[in-house]
């Protein structure tokens, strides 16, 4: 089966979904509409590259016929023009085939989703909490660069401005496709502000990134959920400790607990907490699935294993090192100010290269 033959079915599926999305009844089924739109967006690049490839193939065929005719008639000028057109079409077709090879790779079904990010201070006490605040600032600035929207869902701060734990949503197009590479243990090496002897301390923080799942996509029986309300805690205004707007949801079968207290409205907090719960339940299923194919995962970048030390931020050397691909950059301030594409893009490219190599070995 040729490369274009493999593209035919996705292109036909894209056309079928396009027709389905024009039907008036699909808007009444929220889960179905979301699923179709997600699939439609995922197939669009394949369908577009496939259509262009067919057009270029036709151009190549026409130019080859013109060349044969020109050579038989002894028309040197026409033959030269035909050869130029053939050469240009062959280059373009080669580029499109390379693009299609990447597009046909197994794709993470969650790549188009928004994400929920959790940062927790690890080893290092107050310094780890301060580093957690640095990481949150870095991700917030990266979201601003990408045009994404951040919203804090829960926050536990220290008196010195550090963050023991924070959960926040990042909403936008393709957030998960980029942010999924951030899951893991982040390590910082620097002299803490409280260190009088100038000694470098190593501290850690753990980052977990979950694809954001809408509650319409997962059916959770009411009997499986225990919902509690309580007064919000922490600094932030007169409503704190006066209204029971904070929400805590416990998923009884798994024991998962999620909390949201950042909105003044109990209903908004409940809605956000349910999305967090759905995302965590989906992550449990993802981990079960990934365990079953652990051998394949070991050859890929960005597995999300939270026990791995994925990155080091060394302040004295102004160095940022990602240990998964051996990438070292001497522009630490730039990275911490939100230029994460300098790290994430090489990770994504390494991921694609590993998948291409695996795919080639299986063919």
What does this structure look like?
- The chain has 363 residues and is an alpha+beta fold.
- The protein folds into three domains: 3-103, Methane Monooxygenase Hydroxylase, Chain G, domain 1; 115-214 and 304-357, Alpha-Beta Plaits (2-Layer Sandwich); 216-289, Double Stranded RNA Binding Domain, CATH 3.30.160.20.
- The protein contains nine helices and eleven strands.
- The chain has an eight-stranded mixed sheet with strand order 2-3-1-5-4-9-10-11, sandwiched between helices. It has a three-stranded antiparallel sheet with strand order 6-7-8, with helices on one face.
- α2 (30-73) runs antiparallel to α3.
- The protein starts with a helix and ends with a helix.
- Residues 235-241 and 293-307 have low confidence and may be disordered.
């Amino acid at each position: 089966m040729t490369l274009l033959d493999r593209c035919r079915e996705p292109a036909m599926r894209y056309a079928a979904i396009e027709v389905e999305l024009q039907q008036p009844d699909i808007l009444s089924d929220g889960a179905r509409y979301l699923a179709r739109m997600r699939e439609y967006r995922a197939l669009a690049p394949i369908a577009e590259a496939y259509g262009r490839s067919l057009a270029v193939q036709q151009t190549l065929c026409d130019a080859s016929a013109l060349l044969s005719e020109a050579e038989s008639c002894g028309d040197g000028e026409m033959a030269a023009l035909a050869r130029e057109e053939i050469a240009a079409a062959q280059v373009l077709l080669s580029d499109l085939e390379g693009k299609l090879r990447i597009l046909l790779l197994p794709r993470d079904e969650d790549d188009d989703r928004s994400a929920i990010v959790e940062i927790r201070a690890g080893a290092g006490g107050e310094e780890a909490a301060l580093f957690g605040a640095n990481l949150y600032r870095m991700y917030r600035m990266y979201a601003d660069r990408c045009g994404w929207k951040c919203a804090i869902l829960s926050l536990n701060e220290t008196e010195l401005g550090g963050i023991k734990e924070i959960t926040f949503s990042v909403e936008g197009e393709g957030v998960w496709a980029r942010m999924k590479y951030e899951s893991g243990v982040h390590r910082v090496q620097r002299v803490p502000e409280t260190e009088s002897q100038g000694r470098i301390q190593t501290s850690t923080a753990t980052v977990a990134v979950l694809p954001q799942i809408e509650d319409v996509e997962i059916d959770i029986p009411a009997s499986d959920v225990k919902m509690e309300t309580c007064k919000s805690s922490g600094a932030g205004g007169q409503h704190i400790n006066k209204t029971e707007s904070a929400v805590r949801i416990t998923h009884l079968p798994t024991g998962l607990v999620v909390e949201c207290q950042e909105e003044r409205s109990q209903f908004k907090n409940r809605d956000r907490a349910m999305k967090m719960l759905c995302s965590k339940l989906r992550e449990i299923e993802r981990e079960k699935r990934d365990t079953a194919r652990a051998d394949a995962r070991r050859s890929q970048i960005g597995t999300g294993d939270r026990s791995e030390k994925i990155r080091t931020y060394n302040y004295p050397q102004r160095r940022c090192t990602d240990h998964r691909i051996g990438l070292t950059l001497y522009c630490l301030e730039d990275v911490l100010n939100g230029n994460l594409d300098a790290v994430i893009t090489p990770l994504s490219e390494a991921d694609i290269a590993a998948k291409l190599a695996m795919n080639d070995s299986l063919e």
